[in-house]
Amino acid sequence: MITNESASALAGLLILALLPLTIARADEVILSHEGVQISFSEAFAYSLRHTNPDAYAVSMSKPQATFRVVQNLYVYKRVASLMEASPTFSAVEWQYLIDDFYRRKLLARYLDDAIAERMTAVDWEGLAKAEFAQRKARLTSPEEVRAEHLLVSMEEVPFDAFVSKVRAVQEQLSLGADFADLVAQYSDDSSAVNNGDLGFFSRKRMQPSFSKAAFALTEPGEIVGPVMTRFGAHFIRFIDRREEQPLTFDEVESRLIEEIKKETEARLREELLVEVRDEIESDLVTIDERALLARFLQAYEAYEDTLPN
User: Fold this and answer.
1) Could you give the C-alpha distances from 274 to 122, 210, 279, in angstroms and in order?
2) Could you tell me which of 194, 213, 195, 189 has the C-alpha nearest to residue 203?
3) Rounded to 5 degrees, what are φ and ψ at 194?
4) Residue 162: enclosing H or E segment and its boundaries?
5) How far apart are CA 129 and CA 140, in angstroms?
6) How far apart are CA 131 and CA 257, in angstroms?
7) What is the rounded distance in angstroms from the CA atom of residue 117 to the CA atom of residue 77?
8) Distance CA 256, CA 135 (A)
9) Residue 169's pLDDT is what?
């Protein structure tokens, strides 16, 4: 009988037995072409850096996802080898690119780490409350209307058939037909299952012509149409209106905190850079700027002479 303890021991032994094989396979060359070799370990490292860690398995399980990793790596390495062999690309320039990339990555890591450390002690809720107090008068929910609509779509429909359907709806409305019945019979929109009810919406949510027509309605049951948008012809029935309302702190707290965090991060980033720049302020005043400029220009002239005509 295999107990939990013996099963755990067997599992441990199995992992230890397979460990050398796993390490060996990590360095296995999975593609070799035109002198470019791609090992599994570098392909895996690339996938880690370019895949959402919260959905790694899902992303990598998509068709051709693993092949795209290998293809992208091949492009990078193949082009690099071609450029290294090019007479227009010097070893000095190559080393500069490597060093510059390395320094930029370290700078980004330094700033990210320092900003994260400084932001841990911030009272975000307190800042949000202070911001809310200053902006309270401007923090409002927009005016909204609730309406039902009937859409006659013009997509993949002959123009004559589209016009005929619009006229049929117009005729039925003029005869006093029930709007819900017309929606069920004629509407091409998915909202037809709810009698065309769109719920409450602001002006910015809908197409401009649709919003203009809907917000111009004032009486419940009032109908306007056809109103043209890129989707087709709409017939709109007004239901209700909600005027602009002040928002409570609870409604905007998360949004304010997100805004403040972005602003704080940008400010801290600049402050950190200024702190480092200021370290050499006293040294800069000892340098002859004109002489330094002359050296830069002289060096650039010499550099231009090395460029191909």
Assistant:
1) 21, 50, 9
2) 213
3) -110, 30
4) helix 159-174
5) 16
6) 9
7) 37
8) 10
9) 95
Above 60 in pLDDT, residue 25? no
Answer for the pair 43, 73: CB distance below 8 angstroms, yes or no: yes
Specify the length of the chain in residues: 309
Torsion (CA) 253, 259, 261, 266 in degrees, nearest 10: -170
Question: The tokens 């029935």 sit on which residue?
Answer: 237
Chain center to CA of 227: 33
Distance (Å) of CA 148 to CA 13, 108, 177, 286: 67, 51, 15, 75
Report which DSSP code applies to 63: T
Closest to 46 in 3D by CA, of 28, 63, 70: 70
Look-up of token digits 């780490």: 113
What are the chain's domains? 14-80 (no CATH), 91-139+248-277 (no CATH), 142-246 (3.10.50.40)
The span from the CA of 187 to the CA of 209, in Å, is 19
Position 129 scores a pLDDT of 92
- Which two three-digit tokens encode residue 105? 């990555």
- Euclidean distance between CA atoms 130 and 118, whole angstroms: 20
- The helix-helix angle for 124-135 and 249-278 (nearest 10°) equals 110
Helix (H) or strand (E) holding 227: strand 223-229
Residues 4, 36: contact at Cβ < 8 Å? Answer: no
Whether residue 234 contacts residue 226, with contact meaning beta carbons closer than 8 Å, is answered with yes
Spatial CA neighbour of 72 closest among 49, 48, 52, 43: 43
What tokens appear for 114 in the block? 């320092």
* Tens of pLDDT, residues 242-278: 888 888 898 888 999 999 999 999 999 999 999 999 9
Beta carbons of 221 and 238 less than 8 angstroms apart: yes
Q: Is residue 152 within 8 Å of residue 168, measured between CB atoms? A: no
Is this model's pTM higher than 0.85 or not?
A: no
At residue 246, what are phi and psi to the nearest 5 degrees?
-65, 140
